[in-house]
Design a protein that fits this description.
Length: 200
Amino acid sequence: MATNITFHQGSVTTTERNELLKQKGITIWLTGLSASGKSTIACALEQHLLHLHKFAYRLDGDNIRFGLNKDLGFDEKSRNENIRRIGEVAKLFSDASAITITAFISPYIADRAVARELHEKANIPFIEVYVDAPLSVVEERDPKGLYKKARAGEIKDFTGVSAPYEAPEKPEIHIRTDQTSVIDAVQQITEYLSSNGYLD
Ligand SMILES: Nc1ncnc2c1ncn2[C@@H]1O[C@H](COP(=O)(O)OP(=O)(O)O)[C@@H](O)[C@H]1O
Ligand SMILES: [Mg+2]
């Protein structure tokens, strides 16, 4: 029989889990136009935190829109549901002590407020990061040719062209990616995390 097993009756609270794993779960919620740099910054930040031996995990298009949310489109109702589910999943990861980084346009203030409230109710920090670049800049970048297609009417409900983007009013962090390098963006987020004790 195995020895040295530690077993405590009752469930482990989020605080206890954080203490045992020596990491605080938090959600870093990136929002911004398509091609503003969310995925690029999220990848770089995830790598940086993993190299600091932090349990960081990114929720992004590929592992959400092709899986969990593959039944959803881009009309307003589907976008609401997309973000609602992502908010729930982010909360679960953060409750499991991960530094969870989400990289979705999440264009509606109300949807982001729902995600924030969900976290606040669970006592999990929610850090909204506005990944900001002017429409003219992101349209010029157009790494996937999506703006071109949207302008040609080939994609409907495209954020910034034929669907709204509601910018955050009071984000915890505001990054102007037309003026800030990816490395500096990661630095800006990391400094915020350190100064708030989230990397202790
Ligand atoms: N400072 C910057 N921060 C982030 N991305 C940048 C920056 N400058 C240029 N880019 C480029 O902009 C594009 C952003 O694409 P991506 O990260 O996929 O955006 P999103 O996930 O917001 O749609 C990439 O091609 C990236 O190389
Ligand atoms: Mg992306």
